[in-house]
Design brief:
Chains A, B: It is an enzyme of class 6 (ligase). The structure is a homodimer. Chain A is α+β, with helices and mostly antiparallel strands. Chain A folds into three domains: 203 residues, 2-Layer Sandwich (BirA Bifunctional Protein, domain 2), CATH 3.30.930; 103 residues, Anticodon-binding domain (Rossmann fold, 3-Layer(aba) Sandwich), CATH 3.40.50.800; 70 residues, C-terminal domain of ProRS (Translation Initiation Factor IF3). Helices cover 34% and strands 30% of the residues of chain A. A ten-stranded mixed sheet of chain A has the order 4-5-11-8-7-6-19-22-18-17, sandwiched between helices. In chain A, strands 13-12-14-15-16 form a five-stranded mixed sheet, with helices on both faces. In chain A, strands 1-3-2 form a three-stranded antiparallel sheet. The longest helix of chain A has 28 residues. Chain A is globular. Chain A starts with 5 loop residues before the first strand and ends with a strand. At the A-B interface, strand 2, strand 3 and strand 4 of A face strand 2, strand 3 and strand 4 of B.
Chain lengths: 419, 419
């Protein structure tokens, strides 16, 4: 579906915590068609309000539920300090909005979507995110509960990479989004919303990239293999290009995303650097000697320089295609495992505020039992710059004591500095 | 690519005719993050200005040309009288922007894109558009020449369904988008832009739809075939649903977009009406008697009622699949041919202003020789409500005299009322 991006200001005001959370970040249209508008319009920072406005017209009976919609759109949140992909005034996302007859269904939906995002992060982007629940302080403005996936970037800052909200009846009560249940009673619907954005692109860059540029996980790379033909003398050119083209066709037919860089204007060395910077997982070089020996040289982007190079791989499709597919799978797995090691070696279990401060000052994430108050949490933020990223779903067993208050705690929280 | 949708007002002002054309239609953001902005921001009505702002940084040498980009985005043009899909304050489109080293290349690109749109309209949407050149009065604000595809709707109004602009050097001079040519000289680039929007959805609805609802061309229909199972007694239900499901699988495996409407809550008659309204090209009914005879009933959306129904089509995949594919092709062609007949029977060749007025007053399109002035054109608009839709690329041979001035004319123009 697609909803209008201009939302009447009065819509935003209907849900009290929503307007409180978003009003400092709004862009307002006040002039349209040369005239001052009677009611200013908010450029959509998120769409719960306008979606509910329509849901009231679409939902009548329990037979209309669940109602689940998805929108791909741009959203605007006024930012003073922007950072490419991570924090931009305008960004692109998908936002899902659902309405259910029961709170159990809504909770199940919110959990299912954070699980979808978790799987996407692990399996496609090779980003080992930690899924969990946000603290009250960090919960979405208008939600009862916010679930999040938190990713550790190369600089060890945390990135909130996707969220799913159980909105309870907050918006349905504000907008009177009601249905008639099976007993003929009018009820407010139970809702969720969830989103993942272009910020995730930044997450991929900052999880896998290195000083040479991007390093894309093969499953997401738009070019998985680049072929660089090499020739010195003019009479070598044709046979090298012919061989390169036939390799391209072989890989393409096998469903591999392949690019042949046959431009005359750049040297092979320039092309190597260029495609490394672009993060292409595998490079195939082919020169006159390779043509004679019916073989190629294959280089892995994730193992820089000589160690990542393998000479003399046969051009025969029955050898080359399985070899390339296997290498792409290896790279995908290797990126994930490297990111998991990096993540796990940078999370410190802490039992006291001093240990927490020590971990944070070393640039690490701190994980420790927590039943502190909102004020305690804000104090940590002020004193260390770290916030509770989430209460992870995966919790250690056994008795725990709050690192701040010493009271018995049921859960550990993860603290980190974040983007 | 994706460009920011907020454009500094000063960008819009740089190209004189662009700001003149667009300023009455702008939405302006004047407040961001709670503060009055120093420079107001225009919500993108089109992106030539911000694209050129970036092109100046991306284009240096003739080796950087041609530079061709495409963006899928929302755009905003303030409209007093909106009409769903056709004229909305916000709409979605694709916009292409190109920069070239020579005027010939730019002209070729602009022509190529209007040709792409023409083919899409004919071959996918079954809309027999008339491609041609806009008059000076109707040319895009900032273009040297605008090419258009004009479609005749069911009410015989014209719809401008896509445009391609040769921008010359208007924007490159305004923004100093320059390159160093092969002789080391600095030159301004030659540019084009082109777009097709959600308005086209309205074009499909209003070209093919009837009083029963949508009628979608099979190539664009998201559901090409709907299967409606029919049973009366409970003991019939299972065998009918089993057969319906197996037909669904057969069609789906053959690459046909098929939907089985097996809901219990609605009657077959209700489902017939519902899927007709949704414009599904083919309906397959299957009841207990059909199951026994291993056959189905197939109905065409484009031939309403009994005449469009064929009984006793065998369920055997080797019969059913080719039959359904053939019918879908027939419907696609039939919709196009029907629209062509309708269009051609509603275009009148005129040789005088009186004949033009007569044709327009009958709700038809008038086609006649034209070398009138801009003022003549505006007079026609005022007196008849019709505008020049285009000078069609396909022109009649032989000498012509302007319907208005009587002077020798090289081209005929098409006049019509439009959306």
């Amino acid at each position: 579906m697609y909803f209008p991006q201009f939302i009447p200001y009065s819509f935003i005001e209907k849900e009290a915590s929503h307007v409180e959370g978003f009003s400092p970040e709004l862009a307002l249209v006040t002039v349209g068609g040369g005239k001052e508008l009677e009611e200013k319009l908010v450029v959509r920072p998120t769409s719960e309000t306008i979606v509910n406005h329509m849901f009231t017209q679409w939902i009548h009976s329990h037979r209309d539920l669940p109602l689940m919609i998805n929108q791909w759109a741009n959203v605007t949140r006024w930012e003073m300090r922007t950072k490419p992909f991570i924090r931009t005034l305008e960004f692109l996302w998908q936002e899902g909005h659902t309405a259910h007859a029961t709170p159990e269904e809504a909770e199940k939906e919110a959990m299912q979507m954070i699980d979808v995002y978790t799987k996407f992060a692990y399996e496609e982007a090779a980003i080992p995110v930690i899924p969990g629940r946000k603290s009250r302080v960090e919960t979405f403005a208008g939600a009862n509960r916010t679930y999040t996936i938190e990713a550790m970037m190369g600089d060890r800052k945390a990135l909130q990479a996707g969220t799913s909200h159980n909105l309870g009846q907050n918006f349905s009560r504000a907008f009177s989004t009601q249905f008639t249940d099976e007993n003929g009673q009018r009820q407010h619907v139970w809702q969720t919303s969830w989103a993942i954005s272009t910020r995730f692109v930044g997450g991929i860059i900052m999880t896998h990239g290195d000083d040479a540029g991007l390093m894309l996980p093969p499953r997401l790379a738009s070019v998985q293999v680049v072929i660089v033909p090499i020739w010195k003398k003019a009479n070598e050119k044709n046979e090298v290009l012919d061989a390169a083209l036939s390799i391209k066709d072989i890989l393409h037919s096998a469903g591999i995303k392949v690019k042949l860089d046959d431009s005359d204007q750049r040297t092979p060395g320039w092309k190597f650097n260029f495609w490394e910077m672009k993060g292409v997982p595998l490079r195939i070089e082919i020169g006159p000697r390779d043509v004679s020996s019916r073989s190629v040289v294959v280089s892995r982007r994730d193992i820089p320089g000589k160690p990542g190079k393998v000479f003399g791989i046969s051009m025969e499709p029955s050898v080359l295609v399985p070899y390339v597919k296997e290498k792409l799978d290896e790279i995908q797995l290797s990126l994930l495992n490297k990111a998991i090691s990096f993540r796990d070696s940078n999370i410190v279990d802490v039992t006291s505020y001093d240990e927490l401060k020590e971990a944070i000052s070393q640039g690490k994430w701190a994980r420790g039992p927590w039943v502190g108050s909102d004020e305690d949490e804000l104090k940590i933020k002020e004193e260390t710059g770290a916030t509770i990223r989430c209460f992870p779903f995966e919790q250690p067993q056994g008795p725990k004591m709050c690192l701040m208050t010493g009271s018995p705690a049921e859960e550990v929280a993860i603290f980190a500095k974040s983007y």
